[in-house]
Amino acid sequence: MAETLTLSSNEFDGVENGSPPVPAPDPDSLTYHKLCPASEIEEGKSRPFTVNGTHIAVFKDNGGYHAVDNRCPHMGYPMSEGTVRDGVLICHWHHWEFDLKTGGCFLTTGDDLKSFPVRVDNDRDVCVGLSGGEQEEARRRLIDRGKRTLEQGLKDRSPFLIAKAVTALRESAGRRLRRSSSTGCSTAPTRRQMDSRRVK
Description:
alpha+beta, Rieske Iron-sulfur Protein, disordered N terminus
């Protein structure tokens, strides 16, 4: 029996003209999660992680560490596959550009990329700060992106984009973001690893 996707109308509030800006979390409300030793992220490189269901890409640029949502707000391409030039993070799918430090989008009509505070504990461990409501915020971003992708897919008559949108909306509506292991943190697979699994 086919499943029916049901979303309440208020799930889409504010999506048409981009999501309203989310206020910065109270620093006292953040919980910092250890990701990896700082030595494991090379200068000019990035690594993807999943922390309590939140997909994060961590970059090292000019000696500093920066963390952003690993899903582009446009259509969900992994930002860890992007390129950083002069502090600008470029998505490789449709070339949207973002300020690596703040996540601000350089397109007038584009949504900003969610950024997260990062610190290095004991000059050794890279840690990312997440607020208690991050899972629900991530779910909202998934809904926004799914609707936008669906609209583009219908406009282009693209089965690929439509399927991608439906998958995102089903994940946001029917299932809560999965929690990872007891540590709450895991290394996310790269796009190349995911492609190799499909080939098998």
